[in-house]
Design brief:
The complex is a heterodimer of chains A (about 220) and B (about 110). Chain A has about 220 residues and is mainly alpha-helical. Chain A has helices at about 5-20, 25-35, 45-60, 65-70, 75-85, 90-125, 135-160, 165-190, 195, 205-220; strands spanning about 130-135, 200. Chain A has 2 domains: about 5-85, c-terminal domain of poly(a) binding protein (Orthogonal Bundle), CATH 1.10.1900; about 90-220, no CATH class. In chain A, strands 1-2 form a two-stranded antiparallel ribbon. The longest helix of chain A is centred in the middle third of the chain and has 34 residues, at about 90-125. Chain A is elongated, with a radius of gyration of 22 Å. Chain B has a single domain (about 5-100), classed as Orthogonal Bundle (Arc Repressor Mutant, subunit A), CATH 1.10.10.10. Chain B is globular. The chains are: A mainly alpha (about 220), B alpha+beta (about 110).
Chain lengths: ~220, ~110
Amino acid sequence: MNWREMQKTNNRLDKELKEIMPCDEFERLGNLQVYLRGSQLSISDQEMVRNDLLNMVYEGKKRLETLNDIIGTDDKKLMDDIILSAGEKKGVFGNKQALSGAVGGFGYLMLIWALPDIVKGAMSTSFPNWRSDVTFGNVLIFIVILIGSVGIVNTISRGALDQGKDEDRKQKIVVVGSLAAIIAAMVLSYTVPALKSVILQCHPLVLGTLGVCAVIIYKTCGDK
Amino acid sequence: MEVTQMLKGVLEGCVLQIIASNETYGYEILQELKKSGFQDITEGTIYPMLLRLEKKDIIAADVRSSGIGPQRKYYRLTQTGKAYLEAFRDTWSQMKEIVDKVLEGSK
């Protein structure tokens, strides 16, 4: 079974568990999975671990056990042990994994960016004359969105098993800070004249193709 | 009995012995361990161990139907695992002898 099929099985299993578990236990199980997402494990390893975990809980629930009976009480230690055992790659390899997430984000942003220009071009002019203007402001917004979204996802997933006010405050600061930075970048790019200057003109399909390539690389990396 | 760092290593050898006796799955391994006296452990204690042993190719897993819903992983020892278990037995015998000697000497 490849990771995509396993992901579908896991999502189905997750839904079934929601029906048979108390809300607080299901929320706890969700946090374990969020924490797993924040690890440097490949997507295929994450889905494999998720599958083992969900099957373990499902069988335990069929035996009428509580989540504590099945997995114990120290969630963070359990997940850290699992992630270490599954072979989390630190350093260069870990960064490669983080990089693949950034490449995925880059791809989707490129597609979102190119689409309006493609539609506009298709409605107003002939194919060779379609045009996308890339300004300093566009680049600024692009970078801020990319860094902000990666920061938000990492902070939420890594703090999923840390309870308490400090963690809540940290998460709020990162989320609000990132959103504020994105809004500020947007306002600046439309108000500061220097940021409005065009640095590159290209066919929107070039941007779209770049986006598609980045998404393909990101999806392919998940199998490794 | 609390599972301390020292016990983890011992537990690994015991888990391998249980798997060597019979192809088995997580919950059944847990029951065998509890029957032998390891009371304060859960599937959450042994799953990371099984995962590590599988990644090191010491055990291999086959996925089969459990009969009560989702599929279940059945573990068996690989050739590497058999050698690993033998090495564990030797190390444990030596260690036990040494520790017994020290404990006897201190009485």
